[in-house]
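Hey, can you fold this?
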Amino acid sequence: MKTLTGILHRNKSFIAFTFFVSALITSSLISSCGSNIFSVQDDVEIGSELNQQILSEPQNFPMLKGNQEVKDYVSGLGRYVLENSKAIIYKNIFPYKFEIIDDDSTVNAFCIPGGYIYVYTGLIKYLDNEAALTGVIGHEIAHAERRHMTQRLTSYYGVSVILGLVLGNNPNQLAEIAANLFVGLGFLANSRADEEDADNYSIKYLTGTQYYPGAITFFFDKIREEQKKNGTTPSDLESWLSTHPLPQDRINNVVSKLKKIKPKPDPTKGLYTERYQQMKSKLP
């Protein structure tokens, strides 16, 4: 005679097995279609955890001290993009913070989930006009809006995270993920597909604003010129290229997208070079 305990045990085993099989199938689908098992609120929580870690490591991420006018300027560019693009859907959900890292030797910017964006002084000094910096900031906003990092986390953690979340046996999973992310910030390296996607949305965000929508191309052109002149990648650009790959087809994609904009944008207008140079002169 079958006992109730035995029936429950078998049912429990069957349920666990069903979850496991479902997780395997889900993981396979996730890997193939770029899905995201994390919720939008998870992005906010992971971003908050990472931001706290970053701010607590001044030896690795020395935040710019003082210079409030420069901070407000950079933050204002980000706010302008958020307020003037209808394509941004999480502007009232993600906290969106813009920080400046005081490191002239690094030409880079990065974004973590939830819209925490960090711009190095090396990048600010490297660029020549306001539109170019706004284009880069728009690119980083796109990484947040398109939720690229948690998509990569989904692909990386796969079944283990799915089972942990579904079965509820690891309530501290998000904190652990944030801690793992922070070790070397290894998940800052974007895929070529993510970079192209962020470029497309940067153009979309700036189209119809006061800025030339393809201003990020000025940055690309400058990188290519330096690589050609030096015969290699200058050391201060290595960080950027390690997290933002720049193959020729990425550049071609941006050029192609700009050609489709009607009326055709004028690359000599909407740059605001003079006021950008005035702002740069205030950096230490």
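Oh, and this one too while you're at it.
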Amino acid sequence: MNERLPPLTALRAFDAAARHMSFAKAADELNVTPAALSFQIKSLEDHLGVAVFRRLNRAIELTEAGRALVPGTRDGFAALSGAWRSARRLADTSTITVTAGPAFTAKWLAPRMFAFAQDHPEIELRFTATLRLLDFDRDDVDIAIRFGMPHNEDAFARSIINEWVTPMMSPELAETIKTPEDLTRATLLHQDDVAFLKPSIQWPAWFAAAGIGAPPPGGLRFSQADHALDSALTGTGVVLGRVSLAARDLVEGRLVMPFDLSLTTEAHYRLICPNGAETRPHIKAFLDWIKDQTKEILVLDKGRRFVPAASVEEISGVR
């Protein structure tokens, strides 16, 4: 029996044919003629000493040997592809691919990207706005920005924004809302994207911390925080806004915070990248830039009366 591996081109032809279960489709994928692909499969079978496909009328099917070969070729080419992408990324010092949630991308990253481009014209930023769990190697991502409770990362991780929430509204609406009790008669905007956080940082928790009972029923519900903020900007209602997403609107006066009471949470934004990547010059430039940009939020901390959501839950039982 021949112990040497067959040529890589033959294995690639087999992998494509096994995935498509069609020589013609596999040939299209590999940009070769069906005759050339069939020749590669035949050379692999000669090398192995047994057939890997049964040729049927207008169809093919895997033999027992072919079925045994499928997992190894599939995983092997996936590993090769991942290694190749990793090597290419290490060689690329002019591009950074960043993934963040849709709300954070729209409200925090996007408005600030012009400043980064001006400071670093030699670096091209690419964005993937998703909450899906990503694999740095498989998904060609350099940096992930994620929000949630702290936990151990098998990667470099840096906390960049500690979250807090408080009622936010348009300046015009604020003319009619002078006390926390006025909120019991206001249209409240609800955000379902933080429903997973325990303890809660939603309206019942803020009302309990303010000592004004339960929030009024009804209001408007949004699956994404940026949509709730956009609604508040139009004067539709009052949002229990997250400072991370509303910072620019607050600094520039499009939203106001009439009350100093703010709920804090242990959930925070983390910047994550593969171990060692944080020292690469273009990645480090982005990390340093992010750190500098978050100083804007620290200004908004001044004059706030912070109450941990955990203490509200303990005292009031609101969850």
